[in-house]
Design a protein that fits this description.
single chain; 128 residues; mainly beta; seven-stranded mixed β-sheet; four-stranded antiparallel β-sheet; 52% strand
């Protein structure tokens, strides 16, 4: 059974750091782009960060740029999101997702329909 499992969420004070991880099992996601999303008011989920299979391209939402860093270890089939300088508005459930196609490009990475496999999410709570 193919699964994405997130871990590493928790409670942290504003200004602090947290690393959340996504592990793939049952399928080698090392050949696919991966991304992180989180719920947002008025939306199902909003894009947070993206990385291609070869780590050649990375994209971030404006709200997290300069504070969050996405990385991956294909040998371990994992994707990480290092979150620094956390703010109360970063409080959310963070979901990792695997894209359905192996492709580059900057026009599609923030679109939910481009991702066919999702994890169950990990809660990040930032206290002010």
């Amino acid at each position: 059974q193919v699964q994405l499992v997130e871990s590493g969420g928790g409670l942290v004070q504003a200004g602090g750091s947290l690393n959340v991880a996504c592990a793939a099992s049952g399928r080698a996601c090392s050949n696919y782009p991966m991304a992180w999303f989180r719920p947002a008011p008025g939306k199902d989920r909003e894009f947070v960060a993206f990385i291609t299979w070869d780590s050649r391209s990375k994209y971030y939402a404006d709200s997290v740029k300069g504070r969050f860093t996405i990385s991956r270890d294909n040998a371990k089939n994992t994707v990480n999101l290092q979150m620094n300088s956390l703010k109360s508005e970063d409080t959310a459930v963070y979901y990792c997702a695997a894209a359905t196609e192996r492709k580059y490009g900057s026009s599609w990475y923030d679109r939910i329909p481009e991702y066919g496999l999702w994890g169950q999410g990990t809660q990040v709570t930032v206290s002010s």
